[in-house]
Amino acid sequence: MAAKHSDTRGKRSQRQYVPVQSAQPPHADPPLSLERIVTTAVELLDAEGVDGLKMRRLADRLGAGAMSLYWHVGSKEEVFDLALDLVIEYSGRPQVFEPEDWRDEAVHLLQDWRASMLRHPWSASLLSRRALGPNILNRLELLGKILSRAGVADADLNVAIWSLWNYVMGATITRASFDLSEDDRTAAQQRITRLSEHYPTIERSRLLLDSDWDGAFRKGLDFLLDGLAPGQKSCSR
Amino acid sequence: MAAKHSDTRGKRSQRQYVPVQSAQPPHADPPLSLERIVTTAVELLDAEGVDGLKMRRLADRLGAGAMSLYWHVGSKEEVFDLALDLVIEYSGRPQVFEPEDWRDEAVHLLQDWRASMLRHPWSASLLSRRALGPNILNRLELLGKILSRAGVADADLNVAIWSLWNYVMGATITRASFDLSEDDRTAAQQRITRLSEHYPTIERSRLLLDSDWDGAFRKGLDFLLDGLAPGQKSCSR
DNA sequence: GATTGCATCGTACGGCGTACGAGTCAATTG
DNA sequence: CAATTGACTCGTACGCCGTACGATGCAATC
């Protein structure tokens, strides 16, 4: 009754995934569904970027009317949240692992997290939206388990998880926004060298010109893990 | 001539800051200027958030017509870039410092960076926009100098700067989006405990409920600095 | 056959960014 | 002093957006 303003219309109940197949579709196209909407939204986002996702175009791709989406989704914002959560799905590592493999396990999970998002660069720009979908929570839970097994005390888990999350998200968003095209790179080159009297150190480090993103990510990650989890692979390596 | 599509109109030349004061303003309000536009944009962003910044409202606040802004700015995107750069201004540390103080210096610069952005939470959501304004470059240059003085080799500077940048930006964006209000916190509480069978570790760590953001930031930062810069404050502390 | 509830969609509204071109006024030029 | 120029302002209008609303259609149920 006094619902905010969203649920005035019905909405597909979030109970089970009942594969109910209706007798025949109302049109030639398959019927709408949350899954279809979200996967198509990801396609559209991949193709056109964040600004390219418009409800009308999404509906077009689905062979549906624009307003039909709102039976399933509630708002465009919700589409973003669901799409972001979808690309973060994680199936875990295939093989079982030894107890001492926690570190490889953690690195794999975090590298894969970043890689998943970089496969869909638009996802990095949605990071500021406080979405905690099931897939994100799954990853966090798994990360917590790994750290726990590595000997991190419960009291320190909070800090460890957040530090790693922060680092991974920062690395993702930076890479997604600063991985310049060839043209951009030469432009940046010129700009920096033109201002080189003001920014000599930046120029010397070739910060924007040939960064080894993945290597840098891995290295910083190692340092963080060294500090956050005790023992094993001491920092005197 | 073959300019993209933006500079078809004139635009305040970016030469010097000539404090040319015209004889009398065309209206009672002070005349428009890039500075006035950007500072007012920051005010509006502080008050209304990212979605609250509309060209018409910005113009209203300035006592001007909406289209007058476009003489000075070129597009709304540019306003965002300029506003982001403005809040990142850094005047460096007041006192001079000893050569061995590099670590305090670095921590101060990075903590202040994060604090500056948290003072304007909208700025975190603009991080994905590849803006390298002068103030951001200044900070990066200063950070590079500090690390250089700490003994980081030129070849490692790139990695060190990016690792720190990534961590700081991640911590900022996370804190800005996940620092929940009291209501949100209890809602999250309920949600997590309801799903506690799926996420026992997250629940145990009280991840969203009482995180010590600033402490966690500081701790992770220390670990990164331990790894990135050799010597001093060894990891056996 | 009537009712109910799920699902779809056409229309329309208000608001957005901004292109365009006409206006104003100070400084410059002859 | 008149004419011209160029820096700056702004009213209007266009196209597009998200989505509220209400009218449908259709399957299952009574």
TrEMBL record, chains A, B:
<dbReference type="InterPro" id="IPR003012">
    <property type="entry name" value="Tet_transcr_reg_TetR"/>
</dbReference>
<dbReference type="GO" id="GO:0046677">
    <property type="term" value="P:response to antibiotic"/>
</dbReference>
<dbReference type="InterPro" id="IPR004111">
    <property type="entry name" value="Repressor_TetR_C"/>
</dbReference>
<dbReference type="InterPro" id="IPR001647">
    <property type="entry name" value="HTH_TetR"/>
</dbReference>
<feature type="region of interest" description="Disordered">
    <location>
        <begin position="1"/>
        <end position="32"/>
    </location>
</feature>
<feature type="compositionally biased region" description="Polar residues">
    <location>
        <begin position="15"/>
        <end position="24"/>
    </location>
</feature>
<dbReference type="Pfam" id="PF00440">
    <property type="entry name" value="TetR_N"/>
</dbReference>
<feature type="compositionally biased region" description="Basic and acidic residues">
    <location>
        <begin position="1"/>
        <end position="10"/>
    </location>
</feature>
<feature type="domain" description="HTH tetR-type">
    <location>
        <begin position="31"/>
        <end position="91"/>
    </location>
</feature>
<feature type="DNA-binding region" description="H-T-H motif">
    <location>
        <begin position="54"/>
        <end position="73"/>
    </location>
</feature>
<dbReference type="InterPro" id="IPR009057">
    <property type="entry name" value="Homeodomain-like_sf"/>
</dbReference>
<keyword id="KW-0805">Transcription regulation</keyword>
<dbReference type="GO" id="GO:0045892">
    <property type="term" value="P:negative regulation of DNA-templated transcription"/>
</dbReference>
<keyword id="KW-0678">Repressor</keyword>
<comment type="function">
    <text>TetR is the repressor of the tetracycline resistance element; its N-terminal region forms a helix-turn-helix structure and binds DNA. Binding of tetracycline to TetR reduces the repressor affinity for the tetracycline resistance gene (tetA) promoter operator sites.</text>
</comment>
<keyword id="KW-0804">Transcription</keyword>
<dbReference type="Pfam" id="PF02909">
    <property type="entry name" value="TetR_C_1"/>
</dbReference>
<dbReference type="InterPro" id="IPR036271">
    <property type="entry name" value="Tet_transcr_reg_TetR-rel_C_sf"/>
</dbReference>
<dbReference type="GO" id="GO:0000976">
    <property type="term" value="F:transcription cis-regulatory region binding"/>
</dbReference>
<protein>
    <submittedName>
        <fullName>TetR/AcrR family transcriptional regulator C-terminal domain-containing protein</fullName>
    </submittedName>
</protein>
<dbReference type="InterPro" id="IPR050109">
    <property type="entry name" value="HTH-type_TetR-like_transc_reg"/>
</dbReference>
<keyword id="KW-0238">DNA-binding</keyword>
<dbReference type="GO" id="GO:0003700">
    <property type="term" value="F:DNA-binding transcription factor activity"/>
</dbReference>
